[in-house]
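User: Fold this; tokens only.

Assistant: Input:
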Amino acid sequence: MNFKNIREYITFLESHGDLIRIQSEVDWDLEITEIADRIVKSGGPALLFENVIGYDVPLLINMFSSDDRMKRALGVNSLDDLADRIHRLLQMMQGPPDGLINRLKALGQLIHLGSFQPKTVNNAPCQDVVLSGDQVDLFKFPIIRCWPEDAGRYITLPLVITKDPVSGVQNYGMYRMQVYDSTTTGMHWQTHKVGAHHYRMMQEGQSDRLEVAVALGGDPATIWSGSAPLPPDIDEMAISGFIREEGVEMVRAKTVDLMVPAQSEIILEGYVTKGESRSEGPFGDHTGYYSMPDEYPVFHVTTITHRHDPIYPTTFVGRPPTEDHWMGKVTERMFLPMIKLILPEVLDINMPAEGIFHNLVIVSIKKEYPGQARKVIYGLWGMGLMSLSKTIIVVDGSVNVQNLSEVTWRVTANINPGQDLIIVDGPLDDLDIGSPTPKFGSKLGIDATQKFPEEGYNRAWPPDIEMSSEVKALVDRRWSEYGLENH
């Protein structure tokens, strides 16, 4: 099932016992985070807070925070279903271009030419109410402060919309926004993100400002699309339409030259200006640590539009797992078939919650020749934002990379540290805390595959311990005889 907007999704979750309405008074300051974190860690439902102290706007949180909920949000039975659909699309390409970025662009063009492209509408629910001038007030909405050392309240689930100053192509990204006052926020554009690229282009060009729109709410696939690390020329709304199997309705914003998702709950319109920055942070981040204060552009909100009786969607991040883990799993599954195009020996990939996406990537391969694991490690470091991967582990195809117990066993047993560790220098995620220098440092590759003689392993590799199939079949037949049928 696909959803037109967040309201249909809420109704669906509630009908399946996967959402709880909380009518007790709760505080936007820390209390909601503590409740939501306990629910995430225990595998609980989505939460709709209907009585946030001081507000008549309900707040939705944990909308993606389980495997089942993430699949429901995207209308699939399995996240691998999306990967299979992308694989079939890629097979339709005749002689796809070289390189992951070019292949992604070709895929984006193919999707856009289909029936999933955005649909322009003239009237939209997100513009039922239009506020400008003295009416603009971000504190109209129950924006939360997540953690005790946070510098203030943060908008944490935004779809930030900017336009390439040269090509005019829009981009949609998910960047946190510290609320400074009723009309300004920080804009946490990390170095490697497309929004930051657009901002740098504006600064290098003739304009003194970059128009920005921020969409809050909408259908679940569209909300998720802002978190996908896509290349600049791929339309996230076309990807959302591909997931939903129906084009996303878009409407022109009231005061900026940008298109926004028509089914959103709230739209913030405004701009950032050349050279204007302000200290942003601390913020309790998805690393499990606070990201410390740094200078970021200032977003000036000049107009707010919203639905009648809007719902404010939000999330929090912190020590994993939190909601962003399940959002990231979709990206992992969707990118796998594209990675396989460049590195066909790759069988599966796992970016576990504990690795917070970029700190740990585990890959299984069909190994056929010496040095192949190293080829894969270097190949992954050369693929777009995979370049930020701090640790890449390569294991044999027989290893289930989704089973961290098995991975730990294989890695610690198989590696010869003096030979199988690769250390290189390169770009790191802005939020990395281990490097003594920001945004640049060392990265680790681990070859945990079985070694060939050509790789310096001159002993016989021992076989795995496994029971014979005959004995397994015997025990299967006699299981009830042992009095163990309930075990």
